[in-house]
Amino acid sequence: MREVGSVPQYYSVEQVAELLGLHVRTVRGYIRDGRLRAARIGKQYRIARQDLEAFTGAPVAEPPAAEPRYAEVSAVVRIESIGRAEAGRVANTVLAAIAGPRDGGPPLRVEAVHEEDRETLRLVVLGGPADTAAVLALVDTLIKENRHG
Known about the structure:
Multidrug-efflux Transporter Regulator, Chain: A, Domain 2; 3-stranded antiparallel β-sheet; 6 strands; HTH_17; DNA-bd_dom_put_sf; SinI_DNA-bd; Helix-turn-helix domain-containing protein
């Protein structure tokens, strides 16, 4: 949380407890006793930066930034009635698409296995939700092109 211009910064009880190394119940007790000023918003308390600094007698350090969340999707696409040449074209197109530049995030992996005797192509896609969705959309387009083209 950062102060923007003259807009005061507010902390939750949990954030204050973490900043001060106290238990949440202790912070709530300070609020109930009137030792720490807080505004009640709904069922929660919010403590203004200046009130927290007045309580501690020192400037308040920023709370540590939260770790970014990581999400990974695994998807298996099974395409039936697909010959060797067409399976190769689909697999190569997908593999070429993921080899291009990306905006970072978790690595994107695709494995392609063609079962010639069953005329089935399996694509196993592992990566972040947005990248995986883009690969699935590409596969959908490639399949539709094959059906209609």
